[in-house]
Amino acid sequence: MHLASMGIRVGDVDFDVEGIRHHADQLVTTMRTNLSNSLESVGVDLLRGHGYFVDNHTITYELPDDKGGTITAKDIIICTGSVPAVPPGIQIDGKTVFSSDDALKMSWLPPWVAIIGSGYIGLEFADIYTALGSEVTFIEAVDKLMPAFDGDIARMANRLLIQPRHIDAHSGVFVTKVIPGIPNKVPVKLELTDAKTGEAVDTLEVDACLVATGRSPYTDGLNLDALNVGLAKGGAISVNDKMQVLAKDGSIVEGVWCIGDANARMMLAHAASAQGISAVENMTGNENVLNHLSVPAACFTHPEISFCGLTEEQARAEAEANGFSIAVSKTSYKANSKAQAENEADGMAKLIYRSDTGEILGVHIMGLHAADLIHEASNAIAANQTVADLKFNVHAHPTTSEVIDELIRNAKFTAPELAADDSSAHADAMAKKTFTH
Prior knowledge:
Layout: H1 17-41, E1 50-55, E2 58-62, E3 68-72, E4 76-78, E5 82-84, E6 97-99, H2 100-103, E7 112-116, H3 120-131, E8 135-140, H4 151-162, E9 167-171, E10 173-179, E11 188-194, E12 200-206, E13 208-211, E14 215-217, E15 244-246, E16 252-258, H5 269-283, E17 297-299, E18 304-309, H6 312-322, E19 326-332, H7 337-341, E20 348-354, E21 360-367, H8 370-382, H9 387-390, H10 402-409, H11 419-431
Parallel strand pairs: 4-16, 6-13, 7-8, 7-13, 8-9
Antiparallel strand pairs: 1-2, 2-3, 5-14, 10-11, 11-12, 15-16, 17-18, 18-21, 19-20, 20-21
C-alpha cells in the first residue's frame, strides 16, 4: 500500500522466523566481538568469571572449573547491568512465557501474544509481532496505556501504533497468575485482577505471553555486605551525583563507583556510557555531574518515538512547585517536505520550556527519524542552552531536521536576557533529580 502510493509495485513478500533469529544472533555476536576487540586494542585486560568484593579495593573472580584469581585496584566500577523484572505469580518457561531477553531468541511465531506492560519494550515487540502477522493484547496495570509517555505522544502512539493494528488492551489490571502452555498445542493461561479492588476480573488464553514489566538491577553475588553498601528500592545500588557508591549510612564507599542499570538512575545503554565517563572524570580529579534530563531516549517503533527531559505533565508539576510558568510549542510532520515526500507525514514534535527564560525542559518527537532528531534538543539541555540560543540554527532543506527548526521558531518567551543565569541555575538543580521515563 505504501509503495503503491508512490508508483512502486512489488511481488509477494515473505519472511523466515529462523532467518530473523539468526540475523539477531549474528548481530549480537558481531557487536560483542567488536567491543571486546576495541577494549583490548586500548590495553584493557579482560578477566572472565564471576566477581565479588573482598573489600573496596579487592575483587575475587571465579569460574566453574575453579580457575580465577584476585585483583586489586585503587578504583572499582560496578557495571553489572540488569535482568528482566518478573512479577510474582508469573512462571517463565522461555518458550510460551518469556522475557524480552528470551523473545530475541524465539524459534517460533505465536499467532496471539499477550504483552504485560506498555512501555518501550512492550511497544517495540508489539511493533515486531504485528508486522509479522501476530495479534497482540496489551495488559497494563495503570488505567491507561503508555503511562510514562508524554500525554500528547501517548495519544498519537495509540492512534498510529495501536488502533490500526491487530492489538487490543486491558488496562487497570494486574496479571496475578500465568501458566505456561506448549507451542502450537496448549494455550497460556492468564488471570487478571482489578488493580484497585484486587478482585479477579478475567481470564485469558493466548498462544504466548511476553513479560515486559521493566528490568531489575543485577547485583546478586557481589558480596556488597562486605562494603556495607546501601541499596535503594528494587535492589539498586545507591550512588551520589558523581557515581560514587554510598554506604547504608549515606557515607561514600571510598574507591567504589557504580554506573548503568545497577544504580537504576536511567536504564539505557548510552546513559550507562555517559555515567561511566562521568565516573572516570571524577576519579581522576575532574569534577563532573551528568545531567540525566539531557540523556535522550528512543522507542524503535514505526514511526519512532524519542524524547529527553520532562513530560508536559512533569514540567507543569515542577512549575507549580517552584513558582514559574511553562509554555509549549508544537509542530506536525505534515508540514515537513521530507516526510511528505516519503509518505511518512504522520507525527508530531513538542517543546516544553520556561516562558520567562526560555529554558528547555523537555522535547518529545514521534515520527520519521525521531530517534536521530532528538539529539539537537538533548545536547542543548546538556549545554544549558535556551530557546533563544537555538533560534538561529540552520537546518538543511529538505530534511526531517526542519521539524526541530519549526519547533524552535514557534516558541515564544518574554525575557531572553534572563535566560543564561536563571536557566543555568534551575538546570543545575533539576540535574540532581531522577525522573522515570
